[in-house]
Each structure stands twice: as structure tokens, then as C-alpha cells.
Amino acid sequence: MSPVRIIYTLSFFFVLFVVQESAVSLIHFPISGFSLYLALAISLIAFEDHNGALVTGFLAGLVLDLSPSSNAPFGQWALILTSVAFLFAVNRDSIADVTASPITFVIVVAGGVTLALLSYLGFGALLGEQNGSFGHDATVLGGNLLWTVIFTPMFLPTLGRLHEYTLTARER
Amino acid sequence: MARGGGNRSRLLLVILLVTALFFITLDLRGVSLTKGSRSVTQTILSPVQRTVSTIFSPVGRFFGDVKNFGKTNAELKQELAANKLLKSELAANADTKGELAQLKAVLDLAGRGNYKVVAARVIARGSAASFSQTITIDAGSASGIRSDMTVISQNGLIGVVKSTTSSTAIVLLLSDPSFKVGVRIARSQSVGVLSGLGSNEYSLVLLDPAGTIKTGDILITNGSVGNKPFVPGVPVGAVVGVDNSSASLTQTATVNSYANLNDLGVVSVVLSAPATAPSRPLLPTPNPTVTVYVTAPPVPVLSPSPLPSPSVSPTKKK
Question: A160 near A99, Cβ under 8 Å?
Fold first, then answer.
């Protein structure tokens, strides 16, 4: 990943973070909430190659760690999203090109978001964080899964084009 | 992994993971750099959040309004019926007004008007980054708000200030799983701890093993030393279910809060409690009792040769 793309990616995640914290968080979704940030971050990770996925995951996590209302230690999201990106990078070739089929892509992104949230819960539990009852956590996970499945197809084409646009000639 | 670039990819992965762990370690050790970065982010975010909140709040309530659309009419009818009933009860219980005034003087439950408060608008809610339940309000340290101050709505306690910038503050909501507040039952003055469960229900654990909880019991904040983080006397909620399990040493109960945390528009941060407010839990004042000491009557001293009384001088024989 070139330094220019790192700056692009970082800027993109920061703008996305502001949108999530300012606008998306204000929407009272019927079942839990929707993390546009996580859905887009996982989508971008899925678009990237091996090293690109790792760096994208790390940057996405680092920006998410800046959230002022987060109880988790700084770096927890960076660790989790890097790990999720690693899983994506390792398995992407074995499950074929996920970007080729929109349905597969949506399923993979929704699974990635759920995996990231589950890892967050698990790691938080190891660090002694209180994340609520099982029912509450299950609702949050289920709600995020549902809204990710619904909303991901809406931004997928735009994100794909944006990703193509930011690629350098060498990376293409 | 081998397909992904071999050693170089592996090295990159290790570097990124170690960096993340390094940040976590720094944060857990309380290094101000990581905490400061969140404060800076909040400062940058707050003007955007304020602007977006003004434009976006009608859209934000769209789902909630749609969900409650059919329910509103039925609720209105129910409320009107309840209102009629309350009016008739009020007329019948006119003679209890005097008692009510006394009760008010003793309990001084909320003392809402007596708290020095700062009103603030909710400009953001929750976070994409965690399961914690927070709101962001548009008043901060410039308005006198500091960390660990009580935040109330029109119906009672909603949370506590977690962090501040000059113009915003993040409030940890009552429903957050890490939220705990000392409460007392207004009826019995028993003290307990109320915990958030991440939903609209709360768990109450009574500290007094001999205490009892009844459905409908009203809970008010117990207060903290120096009124931080909680001022005393703020209504919290009512008991809706009591767990009578014999396995536990103390009684537990399920509580519903008075404040509706899903529909917060304007909240108030309590800057200081009135001087007359109790800093400790209100304990029933004991009635003055008359103490009677019963002592034995003086026993006459029998002496074979009583001493002559000094007032009576012996007569001299002529």
C-alpha cells in the first residue's frame, strides 16, 4: 500500500467516523443500531489484497479507537480489525473472489462485522469490561447483522468505484 | 499466508499487532497521550455533531415515530381514563393533603427546583466503537460541567458525566452495563445498588440482608460524598418485579427507570445540590423518649453511737 493511499484511506475513515458519530448514531433503529463505519471498513478490507487488507484494518481500528465515548482501551479496535483483516486476507483466495458476487460479498461483510463485534466483546471480557447481559449483546449483534445485510448493497457499487479510483497504476 | 507475500506480510502483521498491543498497554497504564487523543477528537467532533444534530434530529426519530404511530392513540385513551380515575381519587383524598405536605418535608425527594443545574441539548447518541451507552450534550466545562456530575431529565436520573471538553460533555447513561448507583427505597429507607443491564430494565441489589423490596417501591439516589458523582434525592425508578429466590443472601429486584432514555432531547446537569439537601441517606428521625431512672430509697444508717448533730449543742449541766 502506497503512502498516498494510506493518507486517502485514513482521511476516508476519519470522515466516515465523523458521519457515524454525528449522524448515524442519532438514528433510533428498531433493533439495536447500525455501524456504517464497521460495514464500510470490512468492505474495504475485502476489496484489498493481503498487505493492503492488514494496513486498512489497522487504520480503520486506529480511527475507531479515537471514539470519545468508548470505554475500551486505545488500540483495542486496531488489534481486532487487524486480526479480522488477517483472517480475510488468508481466506479470501480459498473462498474465491468475494467481490465478484454481490450476494457473497454482503454475506462476507455481515459476517465480518459480526465477527469484529464478537471479538470486541471477547477481548473486552478478558480486560474486565462490562458489556451487559447476554440478551442485550445478542440484540446488538443481531441488529448489526440485519442492518448490515440491508444497507451494504446500497453503498457497495459506490465503494467499489471509490476503491478503484484510489488505486495507483501499479496497484491496478 | 504464503500466497500473501511470505515473510514480508508476516512481518507487517506482527508489527501492526505489536503496535496495537503497545497502544493498549499505554492506555491501561494511564498514559495521557492516548486519553488526550480522545479528548482532541471530541473537541473536533462537537461542532459537527451540534450542526448535524440540528438538521438530522427529525430524521433520527423517524424509526421511533413510525414504530409508535399506532400505539399513540391507544395510549392517549388509556391516559385519559387514568386521568379521570386520578381526579376522583384526588377529591376523595383531600384530607391526606396535610400528610402529603409533611411527607414532602421529611423526604425532600427530588428537590428538583433546588438543584443548581445547567440545561443542555443531546447532540449525539451512542458510539460505533463500543457497546457502551452514552449521549453527547452541547454544554461542557465552559458551562461549569465537570466529570462525575449527576445528569437528570424531567423525570429523574439519567446518568453521570463521563468526560468533558469546553463545549460538550459525554454522559454515561443509567442503562450502561458498567453503570452503578447507590439508591434507597423511599418507603423503608433501605439502601441498595442499582445496575444497568444494557436495556430498559435495571437490577437492584439490596445491601441490607433484613430489608425487603416490594413491587412499586420508589427508588431515589442515595447521594455520594461531596455530591459526586450523585446528588441525593433524585428519583431513579420504581420496582416492577421482586426476585424472591432463597439462594441469595440479599433481595434483588427488577426496576424500571422513570426517565425514558430512548427519547432524550434536553437534559440537565446538576452543578451543585442545595445546602438543605441531605448529604447522607435520610434516616427516620427517632422519636424522643423519656428516660426514667429508678433508684433505691435511702437506707437509714443505724449507728450505736450517733454523732451529735452540729446544730444541736449539748446542754450544759449546771
Answer: yes
Rounded to the nearest integer, the mean pLDDT of chain B is 74
Cα–Cα distance for residue pair B151/B261, rounded to 1 Å: 12
- As given in the structure block, the three cell numbers for residue B138 are 452541547
**CB-CB neighbors (< 8 A) of A27 in chain B:** 59-60, 62-63
The 10s digit of each residue's pLDDT in B70-80 is 666 777 888 88
- B172 phi/psi in degrees, rounded to 5: -80, 120
B134: nearest CA partner in chain A: A69
Min Cα distance A120 → chain B (Å) is: 8
For residues A152 and A102, what is the distance between their CA atoms, to the nearest angstrom?
9
Which of A69, A95, A118 has the highest number of chain B CBs within 10 A, making it the mutation to test binding with B? A69
Q: Could you state, in order of their start, the residue ranges of all structural domains in chain B? A: 50-107, 112-272
Name residue B193's beta-bridge partners: B182, B205
B281-310 tens-digit pLDDT: 433 344 444 555 555 555 555 444 444 444
Residue B121 has a CB neighbour count (10 Å cut-off) of 16
Residues of chain B with pLDDT under 50: 1-4, 95, 98-110, 113, 278-289, 302-318
Domain B112-272: top CATH class: mainly beta
Q: Which three cell numbers stand for residue B105?
A: 418535608
Distance from CA of B6 to the nearest CA of A (A): 10
pLDDT at site B69: 60
Region A3-166: CATH code: 1.10.1760.20
**B20 with A79: Cβ contact below 8 A:** yes
Closest residue, chain B, to A38 (C-alpha): B128
DSSP letters along B239-298, please?
A: EEEEE--TTSSS-EEEEEESS-GGG-SEEEEEEE--TTS-SSPPPPPPPP-------PPP
Spatial CA neighbour of B17 closest among A80, A134, A121: A80
Distance CA B242, CA B254 (A): 6
